[in-house]
Structures are given as C-alpha cells and as structure tokens.
Write a structure and sequence with these properties.
Residues 1-37, 55-79 are annotated as: Disordered. With 219 residues, the chain is α+β, with helices and mostly antiparallel strands. It has helices at residues 14-31, 39-63, 111-134, 180-193, 195-201, and strands at 75-78, 85-89, 92-96, 140-148, 166-175.
Amino acid sequence: MPTTATPNTTGKSRQEEQRGEQQEVQQLLATAPDPRPGLRAYLEVKRAALLAKREAEREAERAGSVTGPNRLRARTKAEERSGVRRIRIRHHQILSDSPPDFAGYDLGPASPEIQLGVLSSCLTHIFLIQAADLRIPLDSLEVEVQADQDPRAGRPGFEQVPIYPHNISYTVHITSPAGKARIRELHETVERKCPIYNLLINPQHITGRVVLTGSPEEI
C-alpha cells in the first residue's frame, strides 16, 4: 500500500522545521559535557547528536518526508606536469601521489594506502558511534590497518598473486574501564554496522564508462 504524506498542519515551512530541528540538536549538544577533556566526554556529545539524529528521522517518518538514498560522489583530476591526483569530495580535497622512483613527488599517499586509511577511519568512527550508543566508556581509541601488496603481481611466475591489497587485517587499540564482555559486544556490533568494512568483505558490482572530452561519444 503506498504511503501517503502527512499534511503540514502547523503552518510551518519545511525550512522552518529544519531550523527548529537544528536548534534542538544544538540544545542537546549544549547540555553535554565539554568534549575537550578527553574521549569519554566526547562520547557524551556523540550520544547527544546520535539521539537527536534518530529523533529527526522519526519526525521525518511521521511527516512522510523521508528522503531516498544519498548519491555519494568523488572526483579526481590528474594535475598537469606533476600527475598528482587531486581528489575532491564535497568541499574537501585529498592529494594522492606516487613516490619519487615512480615519477611522483610523494605529496600524498598512494591509492591503496588511502583505501586502508578509509577502512581505519570508518572503523574508528563506528567504534565511537556504537560506544556512545551502548554507553561503553572509552578513554582512547586507535585503529591500525595493514595489508600486503606485491609489486611482482601479474608477472611471469606470479600470475596468481593479487594485484590489489590483500591479507587485510586491523587491530583496535582501546583503553576502557569496561569489561571484556562489553568490549566484545562493541566489537561485534561495529563489524555488523561499519559500512566500509562490509563493503570490502562483500562482492560489489561496479559499472564504468569513458567519455571523450568535447564529444557526446562514449567508448
């Protein structure tokens, strides 16, 4: 049965409602302890933001104004003369480069290294979110990711060696007064909910196309 949007009976525009939601978030954040002293205090701020986000989502569902999936975008351009890859994501920029022995200037990590960094960042963030949600105190958190990449991959005698990073592993370094059972619960929850971890452990379908600049023709 199709969902019917609930009419707006308050007389407020969607923009006004959004401003009200933002004010509620700010009020919740204002009641949380100052995050500067350490990670435990920050988790209280994170929990306040998480609860506010869930409430906003419930309000959107009740109002019938739930939006569809977000289309994420990243764009990379090779810089002239240097070949440095400038990655643009929203208003952020990341440089990716090759080492000097491969016609680069080492101005940024290589793509496989960025991939490991993305995994470690995502795992770290989800640990923070779930620790806040489960009320598991953390004093420190650091995630290290490692992988093998063999430059001989694909050469004669090494045809079976993957060209991509493999044997990926991660280690989470946590300082917490919580018991082992609660830390285990946190770890299991993170692996269920971490987007990039699940992206990497599950097969993906990727489509691609090439467009000639200044021409509608695709190759």
